Amino acid sequence: MSELLSNIAECIEFGKINKVAPFPPQMKGQDGADELTRQALDEGISAQRILTEGLMVGMEKVGIKFRENKVFVPQVLMSAKAMSTAMIHLKPFFLSGEVKEKGTFIIGTVEGDLHDIGKNLVSMMVEGNGWKVVDLGTDVKAEQFVSAIKEHQNAFVGLSALLTTTMVSMEKITKAIKEAIPEAKVAVGGAPVTDDFRKKIGADVYSPDPQGLVEYLNAQVA
Amino acid sequence: MGKILDKIKLGKVLVSDGAWGTFLQQKGLKTGECPEEWNITHPDEVLDIARSYIEAGADMVETNSFGGTRFKLEKYGLEDKVFELNKAAAEISRKAAGDKFVLGSVGPTGKILMMGDVTEEELFEAFKEQAKGLESGGADAIMIETMSDLDEARIAIQAAKQHTRLEVFCTMTFEKTVTGEFRSMMGVSPTEMVQTLVGAGAELIGANCGNGMVGMVAIVEEIRKANAEIPILVHANAGMPVYSDGETVFPEKPDEMATLVPKIIKAGANVIGGCCGTTPEHICKVRDAIDKS
After folding, report:
1. Which residues numbered 26-85 in B keep a CB inside 8 Å of some CB on A?
2. A cellular component term (GO) from this record (chain A) (predicted)?
């Protein structure tokens, strides 16, 4: 039974979606996250265990490898795809309340910036670690962030930017959020962002990679 | 007027231009505004940028068309104006360039092929449409740049090669990994880039953006090692941006950039210019350094 869970973790780590998926080549023809998750449920393994001992283990491994530059964006995207395929089988258990999310994470690319690759990557990694993610999209204004935080009590919020020029929006939005909801925790990230910048604008956390954010979030609810 | 490659074959090191995006903002482009739309709404400002690089001594100037594919323009509801905006971009730079060269800038679409965001055919059509607009406005070459995905770069090169008569160039953007190698966001190394881009028909390759000229020296060395012949271009950022008092500042000064010119030529570069944060002053100093070397 635990072998099945470790096989699921492996499918997530290497981005094996299902049996017919050609990627990764070394797992060709083998069952993927899709088949193995179904099988685990059929064998009576709880959805919670599949999530925490299978899927999340794989997601953490890929997150760490990404941070260490051992894998790059394509591998993470494939892992995320494998993850979301497996999650379809677990969805009913989330809806029934049998499996609970760790919390809610609101994310968006800041006003003036239309780039979404980094934002989506973070979104998938956080979701793959057992969080509910509310994705506000790109070019998101301060008011939209504020009203989303009001709607989802105790949610954490993440601001993404790719352009150096939209770092200004990041400062504006962080200040607006802190003014409206002083206890809200704001994370910032993206190519031009540094921890020094985070301090200057009064945000709570910065990570150069998605895994760092996941670890921060997990620590907040541990 | 000879072609760019002919000049490089004569053994000349050429100077390209500096930043466009950061320059447009100085001129009043607001966040959330479409830069390419300025080719129609603010042609004089765009012309002024192109002209300032030619006056600084550049042998070639780019066009204000980096986000000129339909996939970028559709975010502003301008996807039906691809040809028009790109043609205008090339016309403006052509006017500024005189007998110097015009590089028609083509940036990534922001769509990821392997995620199924788009098909190869859709990408090909989008690049073809943009390249044709740039050609009709008078560009001498298509400058595909800031690429991180090899397939997208290859498709852009093929579309430009098959549907224009222009020289086709391509640069990718690399960052240093924790282990000290250079890789693009999608994990492509400079060495891996060489074969695919040259194989697709790129006549000049290289690197742009990044964290400054120092990193570029190592990247050019790696490309040159992988291919002894292919002309190499660099468009380097003026360092990694630093945020202070509500604005971003690029730390690498014109003189600092210019002192690295002999090194980057020695590494194998044939065309040297700037990317984000570089100004006409940077280009002027690079010109001086090349003329002295």
Report:
1. 30-32, 72, 75
2. cytosol
